[in-house]
Amino acid sequence: MKFILMMHMKNDAASQSEGIMTWPPEDIQAHIQFMIGLNRKLKDAGELVSAEGLSWPSEAVIVRAAKDGQPVTDGIFPESKEFLIGYWIIDVETAGRAHAVAAEASSAPGKCGVPLNMPIEVRQIMDCPPEFLP
Q1: Structural domain of 64
Q2: pTM (2 decimals)?
Q3: Which of 18, 78, 82, 92 has most Cβ atoms within 10 angstroms of its Cβ?
Q4: What is the 3-state secondary structure (H, E, C) of 80-99?
Q5: Which of 3, 6, 1, 2 is CA-nearest to residue 121?
């Protein structure tokens, strides 16, 4: 079963003023090493499909097709309450395992090594019903 684990960040003044870019370099390094270690552990277990950190929302746009098929962009949306900062796609046996991986990711060290306990949204990736396969 595949799941996407999504790491969100609040888009408010407090979160921005206390965010990772304000941490001491050694705390940033510890956080990055934790994430590298988690990804390595998932890869070694054959559970990691993909994991990526994303750019800041100031670089995001929403694209729609115009009537002529050409791209139309819209954005930036500073009024959003949260934004997606990174994700993992994992392939595990059970939802419980996906939840355990999410809890481990949530415990990543933050400033002064204190666990962030950040919320990680877990959603199963839908399989196509066999009747719709070519």
Answers
A1: 2-132
A2: 0.83
A3: 92
A4: CCEEEEEEEEEECCCHHHHH
A5: 6
